[in-house]
Amino acid sequence: MLLCSPLGSRCTTGVTPEMSTLAEVPSTKTKREVIDQAVIRFAGDSGDGMQVTGSQFTNTVALYGNDIATFPDYPAEIRAPAGTVPGVSGFQLNFSSDEVHTPGDSVDVLIAMNPAALKVNLGDLKANGILIVNSDAFKEGDLRKAHLTTNPLEDHSLDKFRLFPVELQRLTRAALQHLGLDAKAMDRCKNFFALGMCYWLYNRSMDPTFRWIDDKFKKKPLVVEANKLALKAGYSYCEATEAFQVSYEIPPAQLSPGVYRSLSGNQALALGFVTAAQKAGLKLFLGSYPITPASDILHELSSYKDFGVLTFQAEDEIAAITSAIGASYAGALSITTTSGPGMALKTEAMGLAIMTELPLVIVDVQRGGPSTGLPTKTEQADLLQALFGRNSEAPIPVLAAATPADCFWIAVEASRIALKYMVPVIILSDGYLANGAEPWRIPSIDEIPGIPVQFATKPDGFEPYKRNPETLARPWAVPGTPGLEHRIGGLEKQDVTGNVNYEPLNHEKMVRIRAAKVEAIAQDVPNVLPAGDPEGDLLIVSWGSTSGSITQSVKAQRARDRKIGHLHLRYLNPLPGNVGEILKRYKKILVPELNMGQLLWVLRAKYLVNAVGLNKIQGRPFKQAELDQKIDEMLGN
Amino acid sequence: MTTTALPPLTKKDFQTDQEVRWCPGCGDYAILAAVQAVFPELGIRRENFVVVSGIGCSSRFPYYMNTFGFHSIHGRAPAVASGIKIAHPELEVWVATGDGDALAIGGNHTIHMLRRNVGVKVLLFNNRIYGLTKGQYSPTSEFNKMTKSTPFGSPDRPFNPISLAIGAEATFVARSVDIFQGHLKDTLKAAAAHRGSSFVEILQNCNIFNDGAWVGLTEKDARSEHVIQLEHGKPLVFGKNRDKGIRRKTDGDIEVVQLGNGISESDLVVHDAHHPRPSYAFLLSHMEHRPGFPTPIGVLRAWDDLPRYEDVMNEQVKEIIAKKGPGDLAKLLKAGDTWEVK
Q1: Which part of chain A has CATH 3.40.50.920?
Q2: What pTM was computed for the model?
Q3: Structure confidence at residue A78 (pLDDT)
Q4: Residue B164's closest CA among B212, B217, B254, B99?
Q5: Is the dihedral of CA A372, A377, A381, A386 positive or negative?
Q6: B150 in the Ramachandran plot: left (φ > 0), alpha (ψ -120 to 50) or beta?
Q7: Which residues of chain A fall below pLDDT 70?
Q8: Residue limits of CATH 3.40.50.970 in chain A
Q9: In chain A, which residues have their Cβ closer than 8 Å to the Cβ of B329?
Q10: Residues A359 and A310 sit within 8 Å (Cβ to Cβ)
Q11: Helix (H, G, I), strand (E, B), or coil: what is residue A263?
């Protein structure tokens, strides 16, 4: 069964500098098959570097031109006890020569670095799928940690898969032994041995990863050498052993012309905010407190000092938003980034931003809840919180990104609305969008709409709450402007003057103005068009990150001649003006959500429609099969 | 900053048309008068002042100052002020807050703003009571105090705001009293002259819910016996007849001594407000809790060698721009590995 016992030395001796070009040399000994799509999942201990391995593979296939969708899935614990089930970290990638909308329901190739990773992930591997396991990690103690009583490599439980047990630890050590590293340091490279094998399997160049290694460890030449050697060793292992009968080729996808890069949701938000600030000619201020899965936005923005970005890591979530409100008052494009628990803490301050009518963007990268919940898992259950979770009448515009790259455009659009209407705006992302990646066609700067901003400068006729009749926005009068000294705050304002005022009719008027201002944004929101059939038997309404799986499902269903439309909402408050009319065009309405039915509740309340929900609250995205099943149920088989 | 080009400002320029709504006899009036008297003397344009507050009686302050003003939410003034100052460092940002606002609900923001040394001036109005909610005990109320929420006496031990600020290593820490107008104005001026964070505790009376809050210090007879006025470079002397002083003991602690009988002012501690380490100021801040020791007022600590937070932050931006050049958006969007589809 072991394919590789005599090969360690061959791997080592086989590693020569010119092997970095091996990727371009087609193997002569094995068959190469052209396929259109594959799903691969790297799974291991959270210390095994699975996220890095997955990201590298993603980057490489994206550069090659495949369409991609990724799903990193990692535990909340930084290092759960090694080898245990709670410590399993996974990274799934769907790459294709066709359009890709989801990371895939099931996987074609599973790389399992230990028994726990095998146990957790095996259920998703297709029958006859390729299973690469690190056979060095299947000793009795390893099995015990995963609560396995028999060794799956020996008990025939894996017979329906194409099993490739590889001594990853021993082979990696053999490849690196001449470098003089200790065993631990050598073992840390075994993920790259596995990655090298995958590059061989899919005929991909190792060069992008070599470049990454050079850059990442530029101060540690020995680590550079070790990682490169491990990668090459994995590649040549496949080459030399003919471990796999077949290697695969997935040609580039036909994406629309342009220059692309791979982008995660959190990266996209960060880039979007820098872009919005540049387009508006404003300083960008981020007040933030670290929280999973939003922290990467803070990390990303803190590196853009050359754009004058000010990132303030506050003492808590409340200081994060209130400092941003202060910076907004002082004339900056201000944002605060968080996840559900942080949203809860920011609630009162959002009310202050509403009352003082200052521009602010609040990003909620949703995760499973309530309370601390599932910090690293995805969920869509903060919609009602975003819409209503404040004391009193406190409407806020709410936007939600549909895909990782859409986060860029949502950030630009939310900033535009905040600045134009002088309002706080909430962006809903989620853990899946935040960490998932897809190819993004990089726009030219001119393609991105300008964001005009006008500060009040003239004392004549200045009143802090005198409104632009069109937008109902009050003037932005920044401290330091002579003659515009004025006071604002959380107490109710008198219309026009902004002075403190407790009169009953004034209060009602102001509540209605604040609501009307948010409602008026609807005129500025494009009408939505359903994808698929413009009318018919079923309309699927969605928001946020479920867009991909629903798109995939609708495509498959329509291929079966079903009349289905898909309405995806990026603006959740105010809703686009034509939603009510679209809902009437279909016999049935389905609202799939990763919550207990929150958009469903809104649509039923607002449009009095008999929509039904499909609800999943497992910290995971929808699988296409789950959607298909529900559609079948609604439309009959 | 040049002051010559400035139009001369007067106290009147800083008064608003808003009716002042504190209770008659409230100590806040005296503080407002002092601030309005000091601001025109600072050589700063009126439009560059921003007064930020939280919630509480003291936090109505911005409405009565004809400057830019922001009446924020409970406890958050230091965070709002930090955001303003970081985004716009040229502004002169002052915070008006109270013992509940700054030390209970906003305690976290207070200490973090101070340890960062953001160039904001904090005036903490300490009347040892919650006034706006009508008479509950505050974080500075005495142990066992009878209030509406503690009918059998408060079980809480109070904060000493000065000790807390020094503990957070605030670079400017001072204390004054609402009715000591001259002293208060001098203290405010000293706070204004400090570039880093300034923290001024102002002992203030609440004649409705905690009348006589500081009577042991403010009564004419008691004043000189129980209060010691700190002045940099001067020996620590107090008493009606200036016949008592503070002397260092050999173990590093301090003691109260009677002058005369061979003890002269030259034996006393000479006040050094500019000491870089906070331990001496902390020792002084704690005197009032010891029997026979006076309560210090004046500037306990004024060490201005620490760079301001906003300067460090903006300096970093400048350095990176000097090194890398100003950010190019088109380049940023195309950063990293890209590929072209034709």
Answers
A1: 531-635
A2: 0.92
A3: 76
A4: B99
A5: positive
A6: beta
A7: 1-29
A8: 261-447
A9: 274-275, 278, 307, 445
A10: no
A11: strand
CATH for A531-635, among 3.40.50.920, 3.80.30.20, 3.40.50.720, 3.30.40.10?
3.40.50.920
Cβ distance of A306 and B324 shorter than 8 Å = yes
Cross-chain Cβ contact B71/A487 below 8 Å: yes
Q: Is A255 helix (H, G, I), strand (E, B) or coil?
A: coil
Q: What is the DSSP string of A412-436?
A: HHHHHHHHHHT-EEEEEEEHHHHH-
Cα separation, A528 vs A582, in Å, equals 9
Residue A218: its pLDDT value, please? 94
pLDDT category at B5 given cuts 50, 70, 90 is: low
DSSP secondary structure letter of residue A466: P
A437 in reach of chain B (CB within 8 A): no
Domain over A261-447 is classified CATH 3.40.50.2300: no
Domain ranges in chain B are 11-218
Chain B contacts of A283, Cβ < 8 Å?
87
d(CA B163, CA B278): 10
Supply φ then ψ for residue A7, to 5 degrees. Answer: -95, -10
Superfamily (CATH) of domain B11-218: Thiamin diphosphate (ThDP)-binding fold, Pyr/PP domains (3.40.50.970)
The torsion angle over the Cα atoms of residues B151, B152, B153 and B154, rounded to 10 degrees, is: -80
Residue of B nearest to A484 (CA): B47
From the options 3.30.450.40, 2.60.40.10, 3.40.920.10, 3.40.640.10, give the CATH code of A5-247.
3.40.920.10
Closest Cβ opposite residue B87 in set A262, A327, A491: A327
Hunting for tokens 């094998």 — which residue is that?
A: A197
Asked if A231 is an interface residue toward chain B (Cβ–Cβ < 8 A), one would say: no
pLDDT at site A28? 53
Residues of chain A with CATH 3.40.920.10: 5-247
Q: Is the pLDDT of residue B130 over 80?
A: yes
pLDDT tens readout for residues B325-340:
999 999 999 998 898 8
The per-residue pLDDT for A9 is: 31
When pLDDT is cut at 50, 70 and 90, the band that residue B93 belongs to is very high
- Is A332 in Cβ contact with B79 (below 8 Å)? no
Residue keyed to tokens 């004339």: A331
Residue of B69, B80, B91 lying closest to A487 (CB–CB): B69
Q: Which amino acid is at A493?
A: K
pLDDT at position A481: 98
